[in-house]
What does this fold into?
Amino acid sequence: MNYSTFTTTDNCVLAFQSSLPLATPTNPSLPPSSTSSSTTNPNTCILLLHGFSGSSAYFTRNTTPLSSSPANHWVVCPDMRGHGRSGHNPSRGGFHVARLAADLRELLLHLRKSNALPNGSPLKVVPVGCSIGAAVVWTYLELFGETSLVADDVELAGYVFVDQAPLQDRAALGLGGTWGAGLAHRGCFDEETMLAAQRAWMAEDAGVRKETHRGLVGECLGYRFAPNTSDSIGVEEAERDEEFFTGISELCDGTWLARLLADHTRYDHREACEGITKPVLVMAGKRSGCFSLEGMGETVRRAKSGGNEDAELMVFESGHWLFYEEPERFNKELLGFVERCTKEKKK
It folds into this structure.
């Protein structure tokens, strides 16, 4: 994978990893045409979107298998604003899911311009939204629509939503209907729990911040949240996993994350799911410390209620970071879904 950057309309530099080498400000001599070869399928892009406090490094077990499969898809993993190597312009805000959705739109345009496809040949993209990454995709669809970039030769061929319910908070009233404890986020679901989470992420004490990052690992790795006798994770491997994920979280500005969290928990994406017309695959972890299978299944139910029969819930044996705990299955199922989406578009 190759790191590259681009600058958004609000002058924020965002980083992303690409399985194809692209021109960068430090290497402008690399022409778009050199990014593809006869063994690469550059018109199909798998876009992996990480979760809250994560980065593109989350997909260390996925990028090579996905990009080196017989189909040779283009794999792109952005560091979302405020995460990883990307900036966040704290003096200008930007701690909103809607801003991240706007960043996604700008990234898609940048990727299309960076790839020398023949005129009239669209870039077919399958976004894979993990955790808050799913919320970013839902918000993108609500703000811009599925076909907003068709004139720019960018097509969204299908969507994968990984371990995220369409509403984090509990809701008793509203047009979206009730949304109780069995459907909402397990730990951050109302004003009180959200404020507690904000205090933890903003803590000045290094020890408290470290425990916050460790707590995230405990919620998101299935073998930590709900261990069982079939787990074969040794002590050393568990320690490496914890160091890996806490190290990624520690790169983030805790105060900025806390403000993003407040915005994220309030979003209700249930109705937005009803407007999705392309194929939908929801991947859910049976041992997720974040959401129940019932809550994550709402995306499929809503898509079908909107007339989309090509929507499926797929359950994994692991947790919230199922792409990390079950990479072989994740990669296989994702490749199959992408092939089906893009082949249907070629008919």
Summary: The two ends are 31 Å apart (CA to CA). The domain at 2-167+268-346 is CATH 3.40.50.1820 (Rossmann fold).
